[in-house]
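We close this part of the discussion by returning to an individual protein. The encoding preserves chain order, so positions in sequence and tokens coincide. The sequence in question and its structure tokens are set out directly beneath this paragraph:

===
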Amino acid sequence: MAAKKKTKPITDTVKMTFTLHAPDAQSVKLAGNFSSWEHEAKPMRRLKNGSWKATLSLEPKTYEYRFLVDGQWVDDPECDARKPNPFGGENCVCVVA
């Protein structure tokens, strides 16, 4: 009997770009349930206009995230969808479709 080759289903990902205007910041990281929060937070790249940018390839689902600006948690002012977190604050919510 011949062995059957198992194939993994192909998962489509979507490139999502996150930006934050923080011209006085020295360091900005993107953290969320896609990065084990601050444990593997994604460093963002500073742009000439004072904004910070990071692009991730994410699978379609709902994610929670926040920014770490110079070590302090900051909300995304452009995100209207929020969910309470266990620390008394709110996480921003991003739906990838």
